[in-house]
Amino acid sequence: MITYHHGRWGMQVLCKLRGSVVPKAMVWSLPCSALTVLIHILWRDTMIEYFENSSGLDSIWSGYTFILGFLIVFRSNQAYSRFWESVSLTHKIRGEWTSAFSSLLGFCTKSEEHKEAIDHFREYLLRLMSPLHCYALHEVAELNDENIEVVDLAGLSASSVEYLHASPDRCETVMLWIERLIVETEKKKLFDVAPPVLSRAFQELSNGMVNVAELRKIVEVPFPFPYSQYLSFMLVLHWIVSPLVVVQLISEWSWAGGTVWLISTSYWTLFYIAQEIDQPFGQDYNDLPVVEIQQKFNQSLMHLASPDTYMLPDFIAEMSNRRTVCMRTSRSSLRTTASNREAFIQSPAPSAVEIVIDDEVSSTHLAELAEEPAADAIPVTPQSTKIILGPRAIEVAARRDISINEPVQLQQLKSILRELAPPTWSSEDLDSFVDLAGAHRQLMWRHLESAAVPQEMPVESGDQKLSLTELTTCLKDLASKARRNSTELQEATLRERALEQGSQLLALSQLLTGTSRRPVTVAESSPAETSDASRS
Fold first, then answer.
1. pLDDT in tens, 158-210
2. Strand pairing category for 150-151 and 408-409
3. Is the pLDDT of residue 99 over 90?
4. In this structure, are residues 417 and 508 in contact, taking their beta carbons and an 8 Å threshold?
5. Is the pLDDT of residue 382 over 70?
6. Which of 177, 215, 362, 509 keeps 20 to 30 A from 109, CA to CA?
């Protein structure tokens, strides 16, 4: 899907051709306009004599044009309704299943004796929820490359994966496995909630499946064929007859050609817009980004499954109450440091922060106000895309005493990748990928510097440092731009290497994030490939 900005004057979209249907409409309107000019110059007098008794032709043509415009607008409205319903249902599915996953983790007991069983349940549920969402999208998406990322399926038995491949409805199969997992976990008394509360998770899971069925309706039931066929016939007829009618109604050849071009372009553009957005699950520029939607869902699951996320943070109520009183008492935020707090208490000059004393505030509160400054406002920044690393990558980095967000030498990152990658990957290829990511990072910094963004330029060549998270981000960015053949990779050598090694870059980023490709079906793969996919 194309993301765009209108610009200051709202006209920036006029300069974009990618995803536009106007060029397709021009294929029809320009020949029609040229034909109109040709007939007007060569045969206008002859045609006027031939149609001299056809009075009321302009009224009949106006009525036909009105009916055609009404039908095209109705078709466009129906296509937009189908498009927006698809967007709404896709986000509802993600919201319902993310909420169910979060609720199930919140329902788990905190008992230490069940810690191992809870960890097993969390990892098991994580590796079932990801393929559930993946197969739901795969049922409605029409992709040339049918691979969609899922969280690594390591741990599932080969027989289970083979049975899932052969299942006629994989989404329903995974849903049943999740429901059975919840029931078995409840029998083990691993949930700390009453059964009616636990049923909410079942309800959210089932609501997501209902929305999947609604998506299937949009994909499986196209716009009625007779309506679409007759609309195409009316457009072609309008394209043929327009030059003949306009030549008689307009005496100037330039106005005749311009009028036909304008009307024909408008009708054909609306017609192609309706066709473009009628089925939003494909690989056109204006279709929904199915692969990115699955990636964001995987990141949400892995973030919620992280121990730092599902553990309740510490909270000191006494400190909160005292600071709340301070904020209510002071007119402005009191920001005193340890160096000037004593001076403020001894000599309350008129320039000090003015304090409004309410009847409800006691002298004790005022003493606390001088000792404890009011709570500072916490700035809330827009949410940024965060790359969630997989457990294996975090474990390898932890063994080397390396923080995933701490910049380290590229040589250390290369050693981490050598340990993570399977034996089939050569060390030379892994080293070249790290160098490629470093070069891409350098170009990004140079672009920021040229745009007058106040950033500190990193060092060059062998002294360059990257964090493991930054490396993963660069690899995913390079793979995404290579897959889209993006012109954003302006450096020629970097663009050529990214296009040649796009699949390897994507596989390496999936190795770091703990995701994998969607398992292919038994019918789609050879026996050797099926066994390899089952083992993974």
1. 888 888 888 888 899 999 999 999 999 999 989 988 888 999 999 999 999 99
2. unpaired
3. yes
4. yes
5. no
6. 177
Structure tokens at 437: 């990511």
State the pLDDT at residue 165: 82
Q: Is residue 389 within 8 Å of residue 514, measured between CB atoms?
A: yes
Helices (H) and strands (E) in the chain, counts: 20, 4
Helix %, strand %, coil % of the chain (to 5)? 65, 0, 30
Return d(Cα 418, Cα 411) in angstroms, integer.
11
Give dist(CA 362, CA 329) in Å, integer: 10
Distance separating alpha carbons of residues 232 and 271, to the nearest angstrom: 9
Residue 108 is encoded by which pair of tokens?
């788990």
Instruction: Tell me the DSSP string of 410-474.
Output: HHHHHHHHHHHS-TTS-HHHHHHHHHHHHHHHHHHHHHHHHTT---PPPPPGGG-EE-HHHHHHH
> Whole-angstrom Cα distance, residue 127 to residue 536?
12
Query: From the centroid of its chain, how far is CA 263?
Result: 37
Hey, where are the domains in the chain?
16-55+223-278, 314-330+364-373, 391-513
Q: Say how far apart CA 269 and CA 309 lie, in whole Å.
A: 49
Task: Pull the structure tokens for residue 99.
Answer: 């909420």
Closest by CA to 536, choosing from 160, 120, 166, 170, is 160
Q: Which residue has the tokens 């072609």?
A: 236
Residue 85, phi then psi, degrees to nearest 5: -65, -35
CA 87 to centroid of chain Cα atoms: 11
Q: How confident is the model at residue 414 (pLDDT cuts 50, 70, 90)?
A: confident
Report DSSP state, residue 10.
S
